[in-house]
Amino acid sequence: DKVIQRASSNKVTHLLTICTTLDSFEKIKLIINKYKNVYGTFGIHPHEAKNFTEVDSKYISEIKKGNNKIIGIGETGLDYYYNHSDEKTQKKSFINHIQAASELDIPIIVHSRNAEKDTYEILESEKKNSNLKVLIHCFTGSENFAKKLLNIDCYISVSGIITFSNSDELAQTVSTIPTENLLVETDSPYLSPVPY
Question: Which of 13, 49, 80, 128 is deepest in the core (most CB within 10 A)?
Answer without folding.
Answer: 49
